[in-house]
Write a structure and sequence with these properties.
The structure holds two protein chains of two kinds. By secondary structure, chain A is α+β, with helices and mostly antiparallel strands. Helices cover about 25% and strands about 25% of the residues of chain A. Chain A is built from eight helices and 18 strands. Chain A has a six-stranded mixed beta sheet with strand order 9-18-17-16-12-15. Chain A has a four-stranded antiparallel beta sheet with strand order 1-8-6-3, with no helix packed on it. In chain A, strands 5-4-2-7 form a four-stranded antiparallel beta sheet. Chain A is globular. Chain A starts with a strand and ends in a 7-residue tail after the last helix. In chain B, strands 1, 2, 3, 4, 5, 6 and 17 form a seven-stranded mixed beta sheet that branches. Classes of the chains: A alpha+beta, B alpha/beta. The interface of A and B includes residues 144, 162, 163 and 165 of A.
Chain lengths: ~425, ~475
């Protein structure tokens, strides 16, 4: 019998570490080669790692939520034969002693995930209204934390007397909601009972990736948002016509392929908007290629698969490729390549499209376009109220490198193309 | 010529500079601090500390007289009047200054910062030359902190000389002047004027404004004005000093006119042994021209709330910069902050309130807004006061004799505390709690709900807060 040490393999280009999502095996399990043993989340995707050998699991390193560096031992097997550790047992101990702290260190580098107890509205205190025109009350320590996180305390709801802001209030604000407003004890007699239970949900895996990247974007980018409405009556006619006469095997066109193609034209005219901003070296790289990220909700959370080189596609190709990458993503089959490399992102909530939103930029991109519900609305044309099919667009821009004028110009260009759909194809 | 390089180069080892140097050293930054005089700056060498020593000694001397004269005040009597040796007193004061100066130098050394003695001559914003001849050296800093401080303002028509002196000389007189005329009734002039009065000098204060210490409101000034009057310090307000002239017998003559007097009116005269000019302080920017840092219209180095000047990597703190009051504790706070900013921390100068103390007799203390300022800022205001005369601890140390009080000002609607002021003997040590209350965003109820130790003067803070809420216990 020998010991087979398995090191976390290189799971993708440039990936240096992965977060343990789930161990499919436990110590003592008999495993065959290629049985899935571990699910690891990287910056790009979740990857299943198969067993390299037949054997019995003798040791597992890292729990769900822990970060494992690529190249570090993550599991050991007892195998027939010599295994892959030629070292004597004593020497091996020494190796282990050295390695174990590395894993711990990687784990400690991240804040304790359970600390974000955002999902506890029941116990969240109600915000207290601050006297009009007064400065936010907060201790020096709270003010310093807010400064560190680029948070304007005037915008934070305080639960203390006179609206004083506590560390807990700041936690709630950072976690995304001021909290408290939804929990009222019912007035008068009621047959309903008060609920006091809470549920702690570990923020790990994709959820934590989303949390980290959203925060990285939100805390470092000076976002500004810009909204516009688009009259898509003509576009709708064209879409209906194209769908009715579509070639065999072609998918039905939604609005998105038209928006993608309109973006291709508009981004070419506004190259500052199709760019990546490396804010550490202070370089903005404008891209000729237009790789459109399509924000996609999955059962596991938000992903952004990418339709590459939209500028080289026609409308049908755009539609086919978009359906392909988003479906693959929903089914968990998208590879790292399909989940990275975007130069601009479109976010659409589909049926939940709503009226408007303030999307968060997919860093290091410099802009994002939100697409909202299309519906018939009464609008005024030439002094008459007429019914037109209208759709709202939201956009957010990185004001550090894209000025209001530039962001607005891009949106106006998209609007002009969509309102005159023939021009998209010229 | 020797060239030294460092990450942080600090000019001036006053309370701003030396704190910046210690913090930078603690943070592992290679740090050089250049000082032309002794480490400690105006505060330690020729300001706060020496003046407080002399104030304490002067009151001791004055109090002793009571035991001799009243033969039995407090049941203590001494056989004759106490005798004063100015050189002895100044020597005692210098001992304290030396001890603190050594302490600062030791702290700098322990933190790893290097103290270089000499005047810094700027070559450009990040390079200075220190010393001359073969001892000269060039020091280059990746970051520079200007902590040059301030100097007393000299009146152009009344240059400093042996008899026309600034606060610096007033703290080192070897002989007690018979008559001191103080030009400028601000806090420095009053602190020193009262000190010399307590030591037995005749003191006259000449002030251009309509009252002494005009930065404080009338209510706060009143006990001080009474003390000044009772102790026969003469005050001429609303007059302008016009110049001085030495007399034949080695004294000096001050000329002054009423501020409304017509051109050509014959000035009034005052004969004095020393004329102490305390009309304010100005930023010490004389050496900064080669740096290219921008100054504001009053001559202060312009900085933002991170104490950054217009030159990248060049910071200015304390009296020389236009951020914050000209106070040692502001300089120290900014010094510590800038050292941390250089090390990569995200800090900013955003205090809710900066405490200010005048060490006159009685002392005057203020933090935050006065009721008048609060009203002017649009706050609905409630105010409560509590007198020293109703506080047990004050009576046991005769602090109530100067008729002081603690005053609290809060918002009427949410009860947040906006400011606390006091006037009275020994009230200066109360200010810590008040400043913390303001920084923590305390409401009246927070202080009302805090047990204050008995018997202490801090009980007055509690009572003044209760008075603001309308239910003080020990007053009606």
């Amino acid at each position: 019998m020998g010991v087979y040490e398995f090191k976390l393999p290189d799971i993708g280009e440039g990936v240096v570490e992965g977060e343990v999502v789930e161990w499919m095996v436990s110590v003592g399990d008999v495993i065959k080669e290629d049985d899935p043993i571990l699910s690891v989340m990287t910056d790009k995707a979740t990857v299943e790692i198969p067993s390299p050998v037949n054997g019995v699991v003798s040791k597992i390193i890292g729990e769900p939520g822990d970060i494992l560096p690529v190249g570090e031992v993550c599991i050991e097997f007892e195998v027939d034969g010599d295994g892959n550790t030629s070292a004597t047992p004593a020497a091996k101990e020494a190796v282990k002693v050295e390695e174990t702290p590395k894993v711990e260190k990687a784990t400690k580098a991240k804040p304790e995930p359970v600390a974000v107890k955002a999902a506890a509205p029941v116990s969240a205190p109600e915000p207290v209204v601050r006297a009009a025109g007064t400065k936010a009350l907060a201790s020096p320590a709270v003010r310093q934390r807010a400064r560190q996180a680029n948070i304007d305390l005037q915008l934070v709801a305080g639960s203390g007397p006179a609206g004083r802001i506590s560390h807990a209030d700041l936690d709630r604000h950072i976690a995304g909601g001021a909290g408290g407003a939804t929990s009222f004890a019912p007035l008068g007699s009621s047959t309903k009972t008060k609920l006091t239970g809470t549920e702690e949900i570990k923020v790990i895996g994709l959820r934590r990736k989303i949390a980290d990247s959203m925060m990285a974007s939100y805390s470092s980018i000076a976002h500004f948002s810009y909204f516009e409405e688009v009259d898509i009556t003509a576009l709708e006619e064209l879409r209906q016509h194209l769908n009715a006469t579509r070639p065999d095997g072609a998918p039905k066109l939604t609005y998105l392929p038209f928006i993608m193609q309109a973006l291709v034209k508009a981004l070419r005219e506004s190259p500052e908007c199709n760019a990546l901003y490396d804010d550490e070296s202070n370089v903005v790289t404008r891209h000729q290629a237009i790789h459109l990220g399509i924000a996609t909700q999955t059962d596991r959370g938000l992903y952004v698969p990418v339709v590459k080189h939209v500028e080289a596609m026609d409308i049908w190709q755009s539609a086919v490729e978009m359906v392909r990458v988003t479906s693959a993503t929903r089914e968990g089959k998208a590879g790292a390549d399909e989940l990275s490399g975007s130069t601009f992102t479109i976010t659409s909530l589909g049926r939940l499209g709503g009226l408007g939103a303030t999307p968060i930029i997919n860093k290091p991109e410099v802009g994002i376009l939100g697409v909202h519900n299309a519906k018939e609305r009464a609008v005024v044309r030439n002094g008459q109220i007429v019914v037109r099919r209208m759709m709202n667009l939201s956009s957010s821009w990185d004001h550090r490198v894209v000025d209001g004028h530039d962001g607005a110009t891009l949106v106006q260009r998209v609007k002009t193309y969509l309102e005159n759909p023939a021009t998209i194809f010229m | 010529m020797q060239t030294k390089k460092c990450q942080v180069l600090i000019i001036g080892a006053g309370p701003g500079g030396y704190v910046a140097a210690i913090r930078a050293g603690q943070l592992g930054l290679s740090t050089i601090i250049v000082e032309g005089e002794k480490a400690g700056g105006t505060c330690l060498i020729r300001g706060c500390i020496p003046s407080k020593a002399l104030i304490h000694a002067a009151h001791r001397f004055h109090d002793l007289a009571k035991h001799a004269k009243d033969s039995g005040h407090m049941g203590i009597s001494i056989p004759g009047p106490a005798e004063l040796s100015m050189s002895g007193m100044v020597g005692w004061k210098d001992g304290i200054v030396d001890k603190l100066n050594k302490g600062v130098e030791h702290l700098l050394k322990s933190s790893g910062a290097e103290l270089i003695n000499g005047w810094a001559e700027f070559q450009d914003a990040k390079t200075v030359k220190v010393g001359s001849g073969k001892d000269a050296m060039i020091i280059e800093g990746e970051n520079v902190i200007l902590a040059n401080g301030s100097v007393p303002i000299e009146l152009p028509f009344m240059k400093f000389n042996d008899n026309v002196i600034s606060s610096r000389e007033a703290l080192a007189l070897e002989e007690l002047p018979k008559h001191v005329v103080v030009v400028g009734g601000g806090y420095i002039g009053l602190e020193l004027g009262i000190t010399y009065r307590m030591l037995g000098s005749e003191v006259t204060i000449v002030e251009a404004m309509d009252s002494i210490l005009p930065i404080f409101d009338k209510e706060l000034r009143r006990p001080l004005e009474l003390f000044v009057k009772k102790n026969k310090i003469k005050v001429h307000t609303g007059v302008f000093a016009k110049g001085s002239e030495d007399t034949k017998d080695g004294r000096t003559k001050l000329f002054y006119v009423d501020k409304n007097a017509k051109e050509g009116t014959k000035p009034e005269e005052l004969i004095a042994d020393k004329i102490l000019v305390t009309v304010g302080r100005k930023p010490n920017t004389a050496a900064l021209n080669p740096t290219g840092v921008a100054l504001d219209e009053r001559g202060f180095v312009k900085v933002n709330n991170r104490c950054e000047t217009n030159m990248k990597g060049v910071y200015a703190i304390g009296d020389v910069c236009d951020s914050g009051e000209m106070l040692a504790h502001v300089a120290s706070f900014q010094g510590e902050m800038v050292a941390e900013i250089i090390s990569g921390a995200k800090r900013a100068y955003d205090p809710v309130a900066v405490p200010a103390i005048v060490f006159t007799e009685p002392e005057i203390v203020s933090v935050g807004l006065s009721p008048e300022e609060a009203k002017a800022a649009g706050h609905p205001v409630i105010v409560g006061k509590f007198p020293l005369a109703a506080n047990g601890r004050s009576l046991t140390q005769e602090a109530e004799k100067t008729g002081g009080f603690v005053r609290v000002c809060a918002r009427e609607d949410d009860h947040r505390i906006l400011g606390i002021q006091a006037v009275g003997t020994h009230v200066s040590e109360l200010v810590g709690e008040w400043t913390l209350a303001l920084e923590m965003g305390a409401l009246l109820e927070d202080i009302a709900g805090t047990i204050h130790a008995h018997p202490t003067m801090t009980e007055m803070t509690h009572e003044a807060v209760l008075a603001t809420l309308g239910h003080a216990i020990h007053t009606v």
